[in-house]
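**Discrete fold encoding**
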Amino acid sequence: MPWQEVSKVEERLRFVARLLAGEGMSAVCREFGISRKTGYKIWSRYQCDGLEALCDRSRRPVRYANQLPEQVERLIVSTRKDKPHWGARKIREVLVRKLAGDLRIPAQSTVHAVLDRHGLVSRVRKRRRAHKAEGTPLSAGLAPPTICGPPTSRANSSWATGNIVTL
């Protein structure tokens, strides 16, 4: 017998159908291998939204907590278009003066991110060449010194063995 492929939606539909038939939540959850908490979640979604609630929901957040208001973003972009040579720091100062106390003022990095998102930041910059110090050329080295005294190590020394080597 080939394996049966069953989608999550079909399983949830069978789960809800058995609950509608009058079976108890604990027994149905045990049979489907889910916790009672999950069973109650599926059941309450079905009661609120009907069959549409049995489909998978998006995990994408409904809203973003730190998202910049649309009006502020438009103000940043329009200010930059009016004054294309201004940077994020100066545009932020303009926002501080215009919105004084009405809204939270975004940080300079946020203003720069908005400008970058709208393609208003040029990434090409002339790099300054680092100044390299020039030293004087090295002088020619002298010949190594000649050793004229007895060797400093006594173990391998001809002095210790009594053999005197003449050069």
Summary: The mean pLDDT is 85. The chain has seven helices and no strands.
